[in-house]
Amino acid sequence: MRPPLFLALCALAGSFAVRAQPPAPTYISQTKFNTGQDVVPVYEGWLRNSDGTFTFVFGYFNRNWKEELVIPTGADNKLEPGPADRGQPTYFLPRRQSWVFRVQVPADWGNKELVWTLTAHGRSEKAYATLTPEEELSERIIMTGGSLNPGEDDPNKPPVITIDSIPAATAGRPVSLTAQVVDDGLPKPRIAPQARPEAFPTAQSNRTTASGPRGLTVTWFEYRGPAQVIFDPVGPIPVVEGKASTTARFAEAGTYTLRATANDGALSTSVNIVVTVISGSSK
């Protein structure tokens, strides 16, 4: 028979061993994929037009955290019924991009569906647009990026943005882009908190609420194109004396559609420009 002191020491050692074990995990971390994933089209809702017609609004969710995908219009990027090309994007930025494009349908659309299909990395996804009453939108909701609608009586008016003429663009060479912005000065800019270095945007996005300068800004992103466009600077660019400038470098020759969005801190307005890029001279 073991002496009592020996048994007591064994029990004490066992209790320390149990306490030394790490706690069981309480969650399973989400897997992130930088590349290799597909793109999901998203139906955001619909707008009622003054002439009796309707407008469907779409966005998308690129499941990749880094990969930017080119999906030309056609079998892999189409709307049905009707023409496959309805002006939808062909260049897809990572993650969720909201309120990206619109399709107008006639007043007698009724209960029909408009279907947007995207196929990438061998997988097809669809978005189904219908005139469901609960999904009706307003322009103010879109201008606020889906935030609380301030109402039509809000004194703040959205900024007005125009783009200066663009010089001839050559693949691989930077091109200057300048946006002219007029705004009513509302809302008054708030003092931004000190941002962490990693909080500043390093990739283009359709979102205009990313960390960065507050007040009147312009954000650029690629909407259509055969290859990547690199903006410098990227993210929200402060408007100074009515102007905000950046440069764009086009990876390949072709026709590109770029979008510039002016945001006053509450409301936003976007404009598209088409840029034809020629090949650089070979030496």
Describe the structure.
The chain folds into 2 domains: 39-137; 160-278, Sandwich (Immunoglobulin-like). It is 8% helix and 39% strand. It contains 2 helices and 17 strands.
- Topology order in helix (H) and strand (E) letters: HEEEEEEEEHEEEEEEEEE
Coarse structural class: mainly beta
The helicity comes to: under 10%
**Main pleated sheet:** 5 strands, mixed
Instruction: List the uncertain runs.
Output: 15-22, 24-28, 208-212
What radius of gyration results from the CA coordinates?
25 Å
Amount of beta strand: 35-45%
How many beta-strand runs?
A: 17
Q: Describe the strand arrangement of the main beta sheet, using strand numbers.
A: 10-17-16-12-14
Summarize the SSE layout with pairings.
Blueprint: H1 4-20, E1 39-48, E2 54-62, E3 69-70, E4 77-80, E5 91-92, E6 95-105, E7 114-120, E8 123-129, H2 139-143, E9 160-163, E10 169-170, E11 174-182, E12 217-224, E13 229-232, E14 237-238, E15 243-250, E16 254-263, E17 268-278
Parallel strand pairs: 10-17
Antiparallel strand pairs: 1-2, 2-6, 3-5, 4-7, 7-8, 9-11, 11-15, 12-14, 12-16, 13-15, 16-17
Kindly list the characteristics that best describe this protein.
283 residues, mainly beta, Immunoglobulin-like, 5-stranded mixed sheet
Provide a brief overview of the structure.
The protein is mainly β and 283 residues long. The protein is 8% helix and 39% strand.
